[in-house]
Predict the 3D structure of the following.
Amino acid sequence: MPAILDQRPFLATQNFRRSIDFYTRLGWTSVYQDADLALMELGASHLFLQNAFVETWAHNTMLHLIVDDAQAWYETALRVKTEGGFDEVKVSPPRREAYGALATHVIDPAGILLFFAQMD
């Protein structure tokens, strides 16, 4: 069977430039950018930020990211929220999930839920 080498979800942005700034402060790098699309990269993780917003789409989008340290992601996200003036961003401390992960939940500037999950 052929392999999948990468996945690159498309995420909505309510304010395109602000979302690029948010993800950059979290550690992603913009490796491609035009007026309507930014390809963000962090290690082996990639995602597209779109200059498009549909509230029901954004508020029903969840991205599950497997990480090595959920506590460190919590601290990073909290720092980015505070230092970057991202009042609309919500950051929850790590909590144990029933499926076997310690997860930090972050709601990005567009209302997208990010799970930074440290698997058991």
User: Anything to note?
Assistant: The radius of gyration is 14 Å. Residues 1 and 7 are 17 Å apart (CA to CA). The first helix runs from residue 16 to 26. The chain has three helices and eight strands.
